[in-house]
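Schema walkthrough. Field components (list of strings):
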Amino acid sequence: KQEVTQIPAALSVPEGENLVLNCSFTDSAIYNLQWFRQDPGKGLTSLLLIQSSQREQTSGRLNASLDKSSGRSTLYIAASQPGDSATYLCAPQGGNKLVFGAGTILRVKS
Amino acid sequence: SQTIHQWPATLVQPVGSPLSLECTVEGTSNPNLYWYRQAAGRGLQLLFYSVGIGQISSEVPQNLSASRPQDRQFILSSKKLLLSDSGFYLCAWSGGGVEAFFGQGTRLTVV
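Field assembly_structure (string):
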């Protein structure tokens, strides 16, 4: 059974800092891994999808890496802004299922 | 482009009443469909997923059921709601092994 852990559980930083969010998973037999953002009371917004054959994926200030063999993924956020405040979730997909971690709650202070 | 519709956005129901939440997807065919629940302050728990019409896989034993009467329609139901059924319910779809997309969710409060 896939288990996903996200560290840290919460993070509060001043604006402009570069951030690292970590995700680890127990079953490396995955098709891909997806990072999502969730604003309070809202649905999930897809940020990045990394296929199992890829090592990283970039979108704007976001960069996600994947080390499938060690069961780890990292989301880098460059030059953080108050608008980045949200919960960030990682979800490896194996078989037909996405399994989620509990998320990292990010607060960026202006 | 593909879109996913989920309704209602909020729902307050008494204990013991029935439930029906509907999710539809447009712009794709034969999607994988998912129902997740998010309890307050907790992560997303996969409840059901479906890879085709009439094919439902249940992840956890519970007071809920799911049905897929059409290719792009996924329904979450209960005959009698419990207080513990309160939460944020999210529908999602994917093309199978590729990117997944979520609806805006239904906030269910059982009173």
